[in-house]
Amino acid sequence: MIQIKNLHKSYKMGSSSLHVLKGINFEVEEGELVAIMGSSGSGKSTLLNILGMLDGADEGEYILDEVPIKNLNETKAAKYRNKFLGFVFQSFNLINYKSALENVALPLYYQGIQRKERQSLALDYLERVGLKDWATHLPSELSGGQKQRVAIARAMASRPKVLLADEPTGALDTKTSYEVMDLIQKINDEGKTILVVTHEPDIAQMCKRVVQLKDGIIIKDEKVDQVLASENVQ
Amino acid sequence: MFNKDRWREIFETIGKNKLRTFLSGFTVALGIFIFIILFGLGNGLKNTFQEFFLDDASNAIYIFPGKTSLPYKGFKANRRIDFENEDLEDIKLNFPMFTEHVTPRITRSALTRYKSQSNSYTTRAVAPGYQFIEKTILMKGRYINQTDLKSKTKHAVIGRLVAKDLFKTEDPIGKYIDIGSTVFKVIGVFQDDGGDNEERFIYIPYTTRQLIEKSNDKVGEIIVTFPKELGHPGAMAFESSLKKYFKDKKSIDPSDPNGIFFRNQTDNLKQTQQFAVVLQLIVSFVGLGTLIAGIIGISNIMVFVVKERTKELGIRKALGATPRSVIEMILQESVFITTLSGYFGLFLGIVVLKNVGLRLEDYFIKNPFIDFGTAFSATIVLIIFGAIAGYIPAKRASRIKPIVALRDE
After folding, report:
1. Tens digits of residue pLDDT in B336-390
2. Is A154 contained in some domain?
């Protein structure tokens, strides 16, 4: 599903430049649930941003679902993002003046789907994350866990090939974190490819594979025995 | 542009961001409102000015007879000069290109009576063209015409205040008044912007006056109007050729400062026109200044709006919004708000101007107005500049990488 070869990325910091990714090579098969771990500054978020086409690489190859991703202009990147990718952020990034339902329906709006269909699809996805009754609520009326579940529903609504989650549990307490991970595991069980960036070992253990990053290179890449989040939720 | 879904999205955004909508709308409405009020008041000031200074026709040359002070061609000094009917004709014949109206003016004062009411009024015996020189406005009836001149009718056109004094509430038209022991029929009542004194005159045909005064052909003063297109230099040239012509005709020494006097309104015309130009400049400057202030106001609001929405735009981009759709959304929203509130401000300004207009006459502001074309274009200008002002930050926002916009502060 994802092939990355020799990926480099550096940021200019005034006169000096900061080399963040120093040649990343890895592949993700369809249906995998991969945790990308590393301390802060290890380049894990940068990697995710490049995977998400939110940022461009300086060097290297990136193939997503057999489509080479390079030299994208903004418009093309936007279309690819809309078609291939779903995002889940640490800070949820819901639009605060839109209801849960409208937030979930937004990627469908950019896919050009008609309003009626958009709303019924969005409601379906809200139901899947268990928030059907909260459809008309604004993000400010939802708890952190609920917000993240809305965000997951939104990421799923556009039926992406890959779901990218950047510290999805970073802003949540342990119990809520496990609930969110339970949801992510269930979506993965349905066959969706998911990449989770995290620095929490317990969250990483709930994935099927852990990629460890340090100083811009992969130092460890191994399959793990998946811990089911539902077992940790009382 | 006419995508129903896009409009729905925009209406939702507008409806749910009331403060932002209000702020941008308010700026535009206020800008247009102030523009219309100031421009209108400026026009009012101009109107007052015109009423004060442009009451009488400014393209007129007044010729007064006097007494010579130098002997010439065998005539003694201190000779009295008179104008006669023939002089009127000669002006028309000799200067056909330069004259519009030629009219005499014989001024007499006489006791005027209607029934038991009487008062002393100034009577001016004139030709029909005099109406244009005084810019007399007929309220009722008609002015003196050529038939009156020819048949030497005893017809009189009386001022509004004469009618008020003598006739009270009665309709003066067709009634007979006694002017210095001659009975005249009132054929018209006029008003004049030049003030109360102007409305206390009575106009009669000059031929009638000559008939009353023992059928002489003296015409008193002569007033000649020339086409405005002559301009200041043309008018001066016309005046000097008239002077030369009359001095020659009446045998006055060309160097005699007396004998005949000229008053050329064109000097006044020049000054008043300059003053009007300055006033117009001030009005335009005030209008332009307000408009620029309005444009700056909208630009600020638009920068603020886009800044405030940076994160939202980042989210939208992450979800698949193209840069184009981001720009279009912001622009469509801003143009919609500015158009709506712009025309609201326009309407409000015109209504306020209409309502306060009448109460401002004491402050030298008469009939303030703004022509709809100016108001309309000002609003369009503001909308266009609002769109441009919105486009620049929108363009920048659309280029921001979602990753930057979404970065947690």
Report:
1. 888 888 889 988 988 888 887 767 666 666 677 777 888 888 888 888 888 887 8
2. yes
Q: Which residues of B touch A109 (CB under 8 A)?
A: 5, 9
- Do the chains contact at B401 and A115, CB–CB below 8 Å? no
Average pLDDT, chain A: 89
ipTM of predicted assembly, 2 dp: 0.88
Threshold 0.90, pTM exceeds = no
Inform me whether the C-beta atom of residue B366 falls under 8 Å from chain A C-beta atoms.
Answer: no
The two beta strands, B182-191 and B155-159, are parallel
Q: Give contacts of B 25-44 with A, CB under 8 A.
A: none
Give the per-residue pLDDT at A147: 93
Q: B286 with B248, same domain? A: no
Q: Is B407 on the interface with A (CB under 8 A)?
A: no
Task: Point out the domain boundary residue: B240, B265, B290.
Answer: B265
Contacts of B13 in chain A (CB under 8 A): 97
For residue A153, give its domain range.
Answer: 30-57+74-232
Residues B113 and B230 in one domain: yes
Cα radius of gyration (chain B): 33
Question: Does B328 lie at the interface with A, CB-CB under 8 angstroms?
Answer: no
Which residues make Cβ contacts (< 8 Å) with residue B49, sequence separation at least 6? B275, B276, B279
Is the CB of B408 inside 8 Å of chain A's CB atoms? yes
Range of the domain at B372: 4-53+272-406
In a domain, A25, yes or no: no
Nearest 5°: phi and psi at B199? -95, 10
A109 to B9: CB separation less than 8 angstroms, yes or no: yes
Q: What is the pLDDT of residue A152?
A: 92
Task: Classify burial at B74, counting beta carbons within 10 Å of its beta carbon; exposed 0-12, middle 13-18, buried 19 or more.
Answer: exposed
The candidate with the shortest Cα–Cα distance to B174, out of B198, B142, B145, is B142
In this structure, are B178 and B295 located in the same domain? no
Q: Are B110 and B79 contained in the same domain? A: yes
Asked if residue A100 belongs to a domain, the reply is: yes
Cβ of B320 and A90 within 8 Å? Answer: no
Q: Residues in chain A whose beta carbon is closer than 8 A to a beta carbon of chain B?
A: 49, 52, 54-55, 74-75, 78-79, 81-83, 87, 89-91, 93-95, 97-98, 102, 106-107, 109-111, 114-115, 154, 158
Q: HSE on the CB side for B136, CA within 13 Å?
A: 29
The answer to whether residues B68 and B118 belong to one domain is: yes
> Same domain, yes or no, for B371 and B298?
yes
Which residues is A221 bridged to in the sheet? A211
* Average pLDDT value for chain B: 83
Asked if the structure places residue A69 within a domain, the reply is no
What does the pLDDT read at residue A207?
A: 93
Q: Is the pLDDT of residue A234 over 90?
A: no
